[in-house]
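Anyone? Bumping this.
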Amino acid sequence: MNQASDLPLWAALLIAIFLLIGAGLTLIGSFGLYRLRSFYDRIHAPTLGTSWGTAGIVIASIVYFSVVESRLILHHLLIGAFVTVTTPVTLILLSRAALYRDRAENGPDIPLLEPPNNPSEVSSTEKESADSHNNTHTIEK
Amino acid sequence: MSRLFPYPLLVVSLVITWLMLAGFSLNQFLLGLITALIAALGLAALSPVKPRFRRWDLLPKLFAIVFYDIVRSNIAVAGIILHGGKRIGKSSFMAIPLDLRDPTGLAILAVIITSTPGTAWIDYNSTRSILILHIFDLVDKTAWLNLIKNRYEYLLREIFE
């Protein structure tokens, strides 16, 4: 870490900017996770950390080590790649578990397991529009 | 050839990963190649679905679009959180019928949707092909439908189907 003071100004600025962007977004994401109220709102906040939060820190670390060691160092990119590829696994697992539980408990504003098929729940016009190609029907209560 | 070398894409990416971690040299290349080939044979025993890229040339376009959208939505979601969760729209579920059937395409769509802050992939019903999303700041449903259908799904179908 002694080399940090020998960095050229442009590199120091670039590293500082990306490090601040990455750390800042991760902090905001964690803050959102703490502040937001519903589970489904909360799963949006940490994605700040897994997208540009990670990217900012990875870019800063690539620039730092490339300048310090005077050669292009790219293996930090793998961190970004693996974080991006593995996030959906846990996120979908969590959200499906939450959805399963909310459906079982008949929570408010929860999309049904199946869009209603039986005529008692849906009028024929709604059914027709649901069959048209660009149907968007969110199932709201 | 295809029996000895069943997953070329996997082998190439494993060798590149190996070289990035271990340093670029001929020795490491050979060691990485042997490891990758054994790994590919191991994967072949599981016989997963093989991804089929029909339009390689569209991949950079997809990456550029997704990159731009991730930057934009990072700023949007960070803004909402900093304003104490106040937003123009409301957070809501949205059901989207998909025409994309290719498993690799769907996996990439899942990565795109989850790594874009503001949208979360909640559930996908493979028999009915209905995707349920959760949108953090839903103002205009048709705009989101357009985004998923025309911006991402269209490109993914071009690439994989």
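Late reply, but here is one note on the structure posted above: Chain A has one domain: 2-110.
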